[in-house]
Amino acid sequence: MSTPALTVWEAFAYGIIQGVTEFLPVSSSGHLRLAHQFGLGALPQELELPFDVLLHAATLIAIGVAFRREIAAALAWRPTFFACVFISIVPAGLAGLLGKKAVQAVGESWWLLGVCYVFTAVLLTVSERISARRALADSDRPVHEMLGDVTPKQALWVGLLQVLALLPGVSRSGPTIAGGLLGGLRPSLAVSYSFLVGLPLIAAAAAKDTLDGGFGRLLTEVGVLPISVAFVAALVSGLGSIAALKLVVGKRRLVWFGGYCALVAGVCFWMGFSQ
User: Fold this and answer.
1) What is the pLDDT of residues 123-132, one digit of tens each?
2) What's the domain range around 109?
3) What is the pTM (predicted TM-score) of this model?
């Protein structure tokens, strides 16, 4: 019997990394590279795409479960809300098509990866401080907590900062939540809108990878058990990380993630120095 391309424990690790770091503002791609550096086995290149589709499917389900009420309500909102979602999606979509090679080059350098983590730490800390001061200054004004209240200007803030998520070391949720806070959204609304905007992008990425095929070989070379373990691990850890993110952002403690990103940046700089 041939050795599987991925063991059950490696599949479990992949699922946890995907489920946790896909949603928390700490970058899944950066953590995956660090995991490979510290011993996590890598899949053959031809199996990476179908495996990514599998993990993205798990994260899509996690978003659907965690934000089922928001998604159901969104379907009944006025067309201007969907226009806002479109505004938030377009910048990242265009940047991804035009700057893919440049982004890949950044991911190959430990030094640049560390810089991206430092940037994430600063962005999270600054956006939270600005949001807290604005909330204090506007404490007498009415609070808008419905996704339908998002304005095109606020959507543009989210869309422009979401472009930064293309860089390794910069998560998708970090810039989008920061963009919402800088645009004037309340923390809980910024989180909900961030994930709602992420749904089309994650689904598009999964659909693109699906068209490239490779699922039959994935099933043959990895096996049903490791695939199932990776999927369930990504789904369960994804639900947990979404709940944790809601709690942390609601308490205005994004700076915790900023501090963590600063520590990861230090590890990246150390890796760059040791090479």
Assistant:
1) 999 988 888 8
2) 8-274
3) 0.82
